[in-house]
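Hello again,

I reread your note about wanting to compare the complex against the isolated chains. To keep things tidy I'm splitting this into two emails, and this first one only covers the full assembly. Below are the input lines as submitted, including protein chains and any nucleic acid or small-molecule components. They are followed by the predicted structure of everything together. The single-chain runs will come separately.
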Amino acid sequence: MRHFLGLISIIVLLLVSCASPYRALHEIKDTKATALKYKPIFKREVYRCTVDGKFLFKKFHLSGILFFKQMDDGNTRVVFQNEMGFTFFDFGWNQNDSVKVYDILPQLNKPAVVKLLKKDLNLFMMRGLDKPSETLYKKDRDTYYRFTLSKGYAYYIEEDGKLVRIENVGKHKAVTTIIIGEKKTAHDMPGSILFAHHKAHFTIQLKKIEEHAD
Amino acid sequence: MCMRNIFCAVLISFIPFILQAQPKGFADIKNVTAFKDALAKSNASIETIASDFTQTKNLSMLSDKIKSKGKFYFKKDDKVRIEYTSPYSYLLVMNGGRLLVKDEQKTNKINTRNSKMMQSVNRIIIDCMRGSVFQNPDFKVQAFENGQHYLLSLSPVTEGMKKMFRQIDVYINKRNFDVNQLVMREQGGDYTDMDFTNTKHNVSLNETLFRVN
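Full-complex prediction:
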């Protein structure tokens, strides 16, 4: 009997530890509150960018400059280049949030990579979100704004009135976490951003830099 | 003479100008052999180069620029150190067939002997700085001059280089044969402009600057 109870408690413990943390969220009815108050608005921002990961047991590391620019025609461009000026990728968004790949290094031009980069940048810039699907949840002092994606959900997590992270959640677990650094205002671009891909095992780190060397 | 022949005659008369299109403010160097000899003589006397540089990446579609600066070092025959100091820290060292790349977080060492493309990129940087571009098999070179500068316009001939560059322009000071400016133009219209200032020749450069291991 004692062995049986021990086994039961281990199973319960396992189930609790494996349970989705999102199950503990309590839905709240607030039709006015929206995560879109955190949508980044920018004219031009330059970030130091480093990418680290592992592919087929081999580590890789890339560094360069990531450039966000709002064009005069209302479109948005995001360009990643190495320090010497060679372009890794150049993506553009029109006002309907449709994405176009202007340029990409052949080594990066794989459907899975392009899809992942687009998704990261869409989540961060709050592009292409299904606004009617937005639902609010509370957990302790945190507010979770949830949007339904074509697969899974996007949670924008607010702590003490500040957006602190974005989580792209699959069935139960976060597949991507985006840690948002300090922002001066809600719509400002943060000082730092960290994209952590838990399944694909790679990270993209961004740190805002001075625009020019002068 | 029929209309077609007139059109052909006009077109043919323009061909020499089309083929010898000159950059604005520059004329063809009349005696290229004499220029090559003078450049070779100047370069033979240079063992090391130390210079400051300012790099401006011009993003044509975005109508914008990204500026950075740093230090450039060259030591005969094939050692190069390009050290970006602002607004980020980034180091590139070429020594023989080896390459070291270091940013704020990581150091990567690459053996370029395994990559023809990497060898070509290595070589063009060294050739541009020591003025030996006429011997580079990856590019066709046209030479021009104005009052202050010689201009070597390099057009890629190999497929690999064509993917990376549309043209490279090397501006050489007529007074001392220093490379004052390097403009690397990409196929999409973007270009990277490197301006070299405070150039010193034959200063003592410690081997540790070029250490790759």
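For quick reference: Chain A has a mean pLDDT of 86.

B.
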